[in-house]
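Methods: example folding runs. The two proteins below were folded one after another, and each record is reproduced exactly as written to the output file, sequence line first and structure-token line second.
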Amino acid sequence: MRFIAPLAAAAIAAFSATAFADGHLPNLEGRNVTVVTENAYPPLQFVDPKTSEAIGWEYDAMAEIAERLNMEITFENISWDAMIAAVSQGEYDIGMTGITIKEDRAEKVDFSNPYMRSEMFMLVRGDEDRFDEAKSFAASEDALMGAQAGTTPFYVGVYNVLDGNEQNPRIKLFETFGAQVQALRTGDVDMVLTDGTAGKGYVDQSDGALKLVGGPLGTEDFGFIFPKGSDLVEPINAAIADMKKDGTIEKLNTKWFLDYKFGE
């Protein structure tokens, strides 16, 4: 999917940010910026089943950033397992899909400052009664976990829930988070790990078919990613700080994590 968000009327121009002074944000003068995402992580970004429109917290946040910095956005889609490599190679200017800030990833891409803090939880079927936290899941030898290789939930599942063996046969790999959730619902796996905010989105739209269990299994910070040395990092960080300061981030949290009703 490819579309240009009508976020600035100016023509595409070379980067010419003004200096940070007197609290003003830089002006990117209509620069076109390509942002890639997966559209599989509600409520951060997903496709509305009613309208087929790509929506979510990150779309709203990026639109707000573009408005404040005077830039125009082209959104594209890619699978998670290809995203970091594609951004690191300069195929896209920014990547967004609830990406945890980690040192090994920061060797390949630059991160923005955190825009959200995530706590990892276990997502299970609504009628699950064999386990209700990590220890009892690990003890349920026939219970399977869905995951995407190389993601934070994968490593949390391997090292915080199971036995530290990345080849453990109880781990079933999928290409997208959405595919994991579908496998969970159909009984092909019994648990997936998700940050609490995205998990709440799936629970809210499941009509009782899914639930979150247990306590948080770790805290992570989310950031946008850029090719190494990108001149967009500093302006984006300034916009994030501005949005935190004036309450915009909190308003987005309320809209997507409290007020938005899936399927209505």
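Second run, written to the same file directly after the first:
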Amino acid sequence: MKVTLLVVGKTVEKHYITAINDYLERTRHYLSFDMEVIPELKNTKSLSMEQQKEKEGELILKSLQPGDVVVLLDEHGKEFRSVEFATWLERKMHTVNKRLVFIIGGPYGFSPAVYAAAQEKISLSKMTFSHQMIRLIFVEQLYRAMTILNNGPYHHE
């Protein structure tokens, strides 16, 4: 199984880039993991929030491949403790044949078409975080899950 984190817009703050890349590399010791960036839309001032979600949604859907299992990182998704997420991920490792794709949408969320394409939704917190920060939180939790599954010293009960 390959894990992909699909994000809208590149990470711009240097401290997030450094930390995200650190966790990407750490996680790759355990599984095939990549982060793909969908370019931000240009000239969005003339677009409504719904139009922007639709256009981003079209780009997201074009990035998906047949057989992908799509999980949206969404405020209305299921919440896990880290150990529960590790158990959930372990089940996916046994059932997903191709890619497990986690998606962080744009500033206004996901279009109805993206929601329709998703198999699951996960929430990382009831709190709201910037899209830059949530990338770091997710890659850290993915790394944590892998260390839990591999009895590594990173996570302590």
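Comment on the second run: The chain has a mean pLDDT of 94.
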